């Protein structure tokens, strides 16, 4: 068994490694090293926590084994395009763990000291951990369900989607009823049953908004806080704690389900921040310094990331959380906008590329979907071997999660020096001979600059329309994330090269080699 000083020194080293890890993650060149440092910090924190003593190892080993298997399988099998929902789900586990630890600490406190004697820090932190953790757990489940397209949708679901959707609702509603009945019928247990049924029911709805929803949100926030105050005053009453957790859970569901599926990456960053705050609060519950530090780091970095994403879309957080992103009655009709669209072929493009000096490739969500990053690297290499300069213009919210394009291009070993940020490339865009837009849409839509009424008005974009020739590779004229037409596709200097991103790239490479 180790002394508390030794453990705290180890926690300090772990905390320094977390901070150095985060610093490393800020740049692609140092990101892998940063990740390893943070992982080492986590290993130190876990090992020294286990060495404190007085622990029942049987369950801990089972827990570590199950967690490690789930983590390893997810790391290997989950596709890059499914990363946002996986991150969403894992945030939720963090929130759920905080609730359980806080609940267990409350039970333990009841056995060791008279409940009313538990110190105020522990009681307030338990309430904070319970509320924030529960909002995070249920909110993250909704974020996962909306991104995996089985919550709040009208279409037919696959069998696995049905199992998760109906299974989860059944467990939550059934659990609330069972737990309530077991406690005997009184106001608290009826409240718990009602919350369980409401959470399960709302998760089964096929739409994301219903009348009276905002009033219910405000009501649940007030109920959760009021119950939190009661828990602080009566920490011995566990039913109060669980009712507070259930009310916060319903709040988490209502807050998240009304946000459009497309805004989920921002919500996930926000929930990530909440999961950190819940962990920090849990650190105060169990007096664990490294949990307080790690939780605060996650909380702060999550909110910074949320802010970066909102800025890159020129939207406020309130607009993301409470507004609706999408076409309005003033959005022009796609048929009108696309009257003058011209399409091209691989052979025609190969001919044009023979004389071209400067090429800029703008990747977007379609590159991720079609996994075209390797083909795009090969095309860039081929053009460079013929004397052209090739750069990649990366928009901060291209794709479906922050850094999505950077990760894919790094995966294909594209030299980081070739990646240019929007502010760097835009002033030189009029000297670009050919801009190749690969599966990007909103991030190159000039209406963001020209139409103040557009849903993406004011969003900074990559000014590909200023290049001499623009080639857009996508499968159809269908809209991107914002759901609005893109006049770039019909511009005089634009050629549409229709097809799946990867196949189109491979065909183009073959044509360039033949020309
Ligand atoms: P986008 O506007 O969503 O457009 C993606 C385009 O990819 C679609 O128009 C689609 O057209 C095309 N596509 C899909 N599958 C394809 C395939 N297999 N091959 C070729 N093309 C394919 O994407 P974006 O320009 O990257 O913009 C990202 C959007 O997400 C922005 O509106 C941003 O605000 C939003 N957003 C991003 C984040 C983030 O963190 N990155 C967070 C929140 C919101 P077809 O169907 O015709 O092929």
Q: How do the helices and strands follow one another from N- to C-terminus? A: HHHHHHHHHHHHHHEHHEHEHEHEEH
Strand share of the residues? 5-15%
Q: What profile does the largest beta sheet have?
A: 6 strands, parallel
Q: Can you give the helix content as a percent range?
A: 55-70%
Question: What's the end-to-end separation, in Å?
Answer: 73 Å
Total of helices: 20
Write down the Rg.
26 Å
Arithmetic mean of pLDDT: 92
Distinct bound molecules? NADP nicotinamide-adenine-dinucleotide phosphate
Low-pLDDT windows of residues: none
Q: What is the 3D form? A: globular
Strand order of the largest sheet: 3-2-1-4-5-6
Record field, number of beta strands = 6
State the secondary-structure class: alpha/beta
Structural commentary:
Helices cover 62% and strands 6% of the residues. By secondary structure, it is α/β, with parallel strands linked by helices. The protein has a six-stranded parallel β-sheet with strand order 3-2-1-4-5-6. α4 (83-112) runs parallel beside α10. 44% of the residues are buried. The mean pLDDT is 92.
Core attributes:
alpha/beta, 515 residues, 6% strand, 6 strands, six-stranded parallel beta sheet
Can you give me a brief rundown of this structure?
Strand 4 (434-438), helix 19 (447-450) and strand 5 form a beta-alpha-beta unit. 44% of the residues are buried. Helices cover 62% and strands 6% of the residues.
Give the arrangement of secondary structure elements.
Blueprint: H1 4-25, H2 28-50, H3 57-77, H4 83-112, H5 120-147, H6 159-182, H7 187-204, H8 213-233, H9 238-257, H10 264-285, H11 289-312, H12 317-322, H13 334-337, H14 346-353, E1 358-363, H15 365-370, H16 373-385, E2 389-394, H17 404-411, E3 419-421, H18 422-425, E4 434-438, H19 447-450, E5 469-474, E6 494-498, H20 501-514
Parallel strand pairs: 1-2, 1-4, 2-3, 4-5, 5-6
Helix pairs in contact: 1-2, 1-11, 4-5, 4-9, 4-10, 5-8, 5-9, 5-10, 6-7, 7-9, 8-9, 10-11, 14-20, 16-20
This protein binds NADP nicotinamide-adenine-dinucleotide phosphate (NAP).
